[in-house]
Amino acid sequence: MRRTGVRHSVAAILGVAGLALASIAAFASTATAASTSTVSLNCSTVVDPAKPPNTFAWPDAQFVFSATGPAGTAVTVEVSDLPAIAPVKMAGFPGTSKLVLTLGGTTTTLTGSGSITNGGANQPVPVPDLQGTLAFPVDSLPDVLTSFQLVVMGIATDCVLPTATPTPTPTTTTSATATPSASTSPTAEPTSKPTPKPTSKPGSDSGKPAKGSVDFACVLNPLNTDFDYPATVTVSGYRKKAGHDISLSAKMTDLPGISPVPIDGKMDVTLDVVVGKRKTTLKGSTHAVAPPRQKVPVPTLTGSVAGDDEVEVSVTGFTFNFAALSIDAACTADAESLGTMKVGSEPIEDDAGPDGSGTANGGSTADGGSLPQTGGGDALPVVALWALALVLLGAAGLLCVPQVARRKP
Hints:
This protein is α+β, with helices and mostly antiparallel strands and 409 residues long. 16% of the residues lie in helices and 40% in strands.
């Protein structure tokens, strides 16, 4: 009797265990393992909405799914590096990624975000891993892939299969939201211009500056890309005693507003001038701050040179340099004359440019010589320079030859 009861109990336990094992086996049969899909994509990057998008091919893009189904499965997707599309190094830039899959009117959107760092200029660009929940099994990625997107500091790259046409994501919203901050430039004008007047003593000679328009032809390095900089340049001079060198101060109108993202970093500038028959280089430095697509103030440039009380002044060149990222521009002019400068006897106020902006921190030179540039650059957000480079670069030179995508280590 007792043995019969034991047999029934053991049978019951084994029956329950069998059901549990059967359920686990049934669940395991529906789960899927990791899967790698390789596709070729056509991509488009919009930097300046006023210009055509920059297009390029992304051959052999790899998407590694941690699982491909069933519906409701949480997945992580690793993506191979984007081709080498950035002309400057990216160092820890915030970025987001998005993969859209569609099947029978149902959409699955996987997203990712992270810090993006690559090996340098014209090097492949890492993509943040994507995560999300599948709304349907992904048996064949090409059959369900709708679009892929990578956004780095507001600059979007959109990719689709070759059979579709990429729809570029405009970057105008980033610029538009920051544009009202441009009101900071005009507010400086009325406060800074009256400042020099109280410093002049009754009967003192403040001299007369040479002022004129200069059309600079500029080249952005290391991209070797051309752009124009029409500027109004004012050069003033004074000396305390007869026979002393002339202390020079130059003010320039702002650089063109060509960056679609904010600028915030140290900028060094130089201005090559001819005073009388003597060549000299004036220098300045500032922490440049400007909203998207707004003009960038140029600091006051200073220097010294020997010369007479009234001298002709002409301009031959200008440079700006963001030392932290090894990006600079060299500008030339055809020795354009600013007219005659009358040397004064009072110090030159140098805390405002022609438009009331800029601060001085320059060097000085003697007859035809130039001092070496000093000081290291603060870190300028690289995206500002990247965007500046892309705007100037244009569609033809933006992209290097696409490299075969590679898996991330």
